[in-house]
Amino acid sequence: MSSSKSGRDMSDSSKPGVSGNMSQSAKYYALFILTIVYAFNFIDRQILVILQPLIKAELDLSDTQLGLLSGIAFAFLYTVLGIPIARLADRSNRRNIISIALTVWSAMTVVCGYAQNFVQLLLARMGVGVGEAGGSPPAHSMISDMFTAEKRATALAVYSAGLYLGVVVGFSLGGFFGEMFGWRKTFLIVGAPGVLLAGILFLTVKEPQRSATHSKEDAPTFRDTMRRLVKLKSFPLFALGCAMSAFVSYGTSNFMPSYMVRYHNVPLTEIGFLLAITGGGGGILGTFLGGYLTDRVGRHDPRWYLWLPGLTAVTAVPLGLYVFNTDNTSMMLIVYFVFAVLGTLYLAPSIAVAHRLVDPRMRAMTSAILFFILNMIGLGAGPFVVGALSDTIGSMTGSDGLRAALTIGACVALVKGYLFWAAGKKLPADIAATEGMVEQKEG
Questions:
Q1: Alpha-carbon gap, residue 440 to 433, rounded angstroms
Q2: Which of 20, 73, 107, 327 is the most exposed place for a label (fewest CB within 10 A)?
Q3: Is the full-model pTM beyond 0.70?
Q4: Phi-psi region of 17 (alpha: psi -120 to 50; beta: other; left: phi over 0)
C-alpha cells in the first residue's frame, strides 16, 4: 500500500484549489514552500532557546522554568490538538489548514514579546503550540500523495530538513537580534513574516489529489487509525524510539546556549552563529541523509529503514559525552556537529515507514499520532527533565548542575538504538501483512 495506482485515485481535480495529476515542477514547488513553512515552524518554536539567557536574566527564571517554556508549555497543546487537526486534514483541504495554522502560530510568537512574567510567557508559548499543531500532519499527508513510495523518504527528508533550516535561521538571527534589540523585539521580528508566507502558500500551492479510493465521508476515523496501528508490531517500538531521539535532541539542544555561556564563556551573538552551523547545519545534513540513505539501503532490505537510525544513535552517545564534558570549545563545536548529524537520521525514514503501513487516508492521522508520542515524551519531557536535573544536581552539589544533566540526557540515545533495532526485526512481517490487506481489498 505504499502507493496507489492512478486509475484508482479519487479525483478531486474539479474542485477549486485541488490539483489532479500535478506536474513535476508543481510537486517540487509545493515541497519547497512546505519546507520553508516548516522552517518558520521551528524558527518560531525554538527562538526562545537562543534568547534563554536574556529572558532568564530579566524574568529571574530557574532552569526548570526554562525547560517548561521550551518543552511542555509548547508540547502539550501541540500534540493533543494535532490529533483532531489531522482528522480534519484527512477529510478536507490540507493546504488551507496549514495556511491558517501558520497565521496563528506566527501571531502568537509576536504575543510572546509582550509577556511581562513567567505565566504570561507560558500562555503565549501554549498559543504557539496551538498554531503549530496544524503544520506537520497535513504536510506529511500532502507529500506522501505527491511522491511515490520509492521517493517518499527522500521527499520527507527534504521537508524535515526545514526543521534544522529553522534552527539555523532562528539561532543565527535570534542571537544577533537579541543583542541588538532585546528579546522582546526579537519575537516580533521573527513572528510577523509568517503571516505573509501563509498568504503565499494559500495562493500558489495546490492541494494534491489523494491516492485513495475512499470518499471524504468514508475517511478512516481516529479509532480506525489507532486500531490499525496497534496491530503493527513495529510501530510502537519505532514511535518510542523517535520519542527517545527527540528527548535527547530537545533536552540537550534547548540548553546549549546556556551551556556555552556558563561553561565556555561564549557571547550570545557568537552562540547563535555557532549553533546555526553546528546544530542546525548538522541537523539539515543528518535529516537529508536519513531519507536519502535509507531509500537506498532499504531498497533491498526494508529493515534498514529503522536499523540505520538505530545504529547511528548508539554511535552518537560517546560523542555526546565528549561534547558536554570538554573544556575545549573548538573541539566541542566540531564534535557537536557530528553528534547532530548522527542523531537526526531517524525522522524521515520513520515517517515513510509509518505511511507505508497504513491506508493513504490514514497518513495525516498517523503522523499526528507519531508526533504525539514523539513530542509529548521528547519535546515535553526532554527539556523539563534536563532542567530539573540541572537544578536538583546543583542544589545537591552546591555548583551548577547543567553539565551533569546534559551528560545524562545524551545517554538516553542508547534506549533509542535498541528500540529501532527491535522495530526493524518486526518490520518485514508488518509490511507483508499490509500488502496482503491491499491485495485482498483490491481483489
A1: 11
A2: 327
A3: yes
A4: left
- Look at the alpha carbons of 74, 306, 166, 67 in this order and tell me if their dihedral is positive or negative: positive
Lookup result for grid cell 509545493: 30
Task: Give me the pLDDT at residue 218, please.
Answer: 61
CB atoms within 10 A of CB 314: 16
The yes-or-no verdict on residue 246 having pLDDT over 50 is: yes
**Highest mean pLDDT out of 47-61, 143-157, 259-273, 307-321:** 307-321
pLDDT for 398 equals: 80
Side-chain half-sphere exposure of 272, counting CA atoms within 13 A: 25
In DSSP terms, 18 is beta-bridged to 207
